[in-house]
Amino acid sequence: MHHKNIKAIVRKQLKINYRHWNRLNKKDKKRIARMVLDEVERDYDFNHEIKTSEPELLGIEDQMPTPGIMNLEEMERFIESHKNDVLFKLNRHKKHPTYLKDEELRYIDGILDDQIINKLLSYDGYSPCMRGLFPSNYLRAELLKAIKYPEISYRKFCGDDKTYKGHKSNSGYIGMGNKQNRVFIGLPLNKKKMISHVQMSQFRAGLSFKQLVNLMVYILYHFKKAGFLDGGIIHCVDSTELAIERQELLAALTIKGKNIRVYDEIDCDCGKRRKKRDKSEYVIGYRLHTLTAINANTGRSFPLISLLAPANHHDSHFLKYLVQFGKAIGLDLRLITADEAYHDNDDVIYSENNVHLITPPGSK
């Protein structure tokens, strides 16, 4: 594990000491990566016990449950307390519902409570009275683009695809002519108020991990309320590779037969992928480990939790963290099916979390 520890130290130093890493040119990145890697190797003591936590070694330390994350029961109490508020009841009326002709958008609009979304996604010092656009507007815009227009750019979606001079009111997607989309987002029909791609980018970048998880728990609350998490549910864990294109190797080091690599994107790494037709055996990027719920009666499935890690780590490291995360947000995990890579040979998953792991028989 020493090679993982060295990579974790290098990654941490680059992030702390070079906060504007993405703005550096290729030549400077190579020089800095080589310098930091050599310094860590020179000062590293292989005789000392590794004190770095396993999540840090795996590159998922920022994806662990943190204070402030709600489970399903806490989310239910949170929602009920807001529904009983007098001001909340007065503002539940949806404006211009007749313009929402699309069945999918109407369903999503009926689920989302803007005031609860604003509460979940607001930051410290948030003041609604000083805002024209709220977190709920940005979230709705993100959902609209992801569901209806995934193939276009944010600039085109917002009407900023040409020379940017303020916000264009003639966007074919959220402009004044598309009343359905404006109503779904919450933009006024009598004013040329728009959302720019810059604002949407800042909204995404400004969300903390706690806010993202609480938003996910909010959606899972509605899943549970609709009965999707009850009766005949089993859970599955699987992973998929996420390749990062045009990644250049900045510095490399081999220690005791283990390779330590630093790429342009600091967090990614090179790992082996499953055998796939017409694809290389190796992939530079990440591996996404996902816990999925499967309804055995209907055959429907939907993802619940994902952990994103560098591609060079073995799948077996991540099962317990997915289970712990699921338990932390209140999921009823009892039976998980996964391939052989997610083995539990030591019965740690069962002894610590009371979860049974089922793997298919070996192919050999």
Please specify the SSE layout and strand pairing.
Layout lengths: L1 H16 L8 H18 L10 H5 L13 H12 L2 H5 L12 H9 L2 H8 L13 H14 L5 H5 L20 H7 L11 H10 L2 H17 L7 E11 L5 E7 L2 E6 L5 E4 L9 E14 L5 E10 L8 H10 L6 E4 L9 H6 L2 E3 L6
Parallel strand pairs: 1-7, 7-8
Antiparallel strand pairs: 1-5, 2-3, 4-5, 5-6
Helix pairs in contact: 1-2, 7-8
Major sheet: 6 strands, mixed
Mean pLDDT: 86
Helix content: 25-40%
Number of strands: 8
Count of the separate structural domains? 2
User: Which series of helices and strands comes N to C?
Assistant: HHHHHHHHHHHHEEEEEEHEHE
What class do helices, strands and sheet pairing give? alpha/beta
Terminal CA distance reads 29 Å
What is the overall silhouette? globular
Query: How many H/I helices?
Result: 14
Oligomeric state of the chains?
Answer: single chain
Instruction: Please compute the radius of gyration using only Cα atoms.
Output: 24 Å
Strand content: 15-25%
Low-pLDDT residue intervals, each spanning 5 or more residues: none
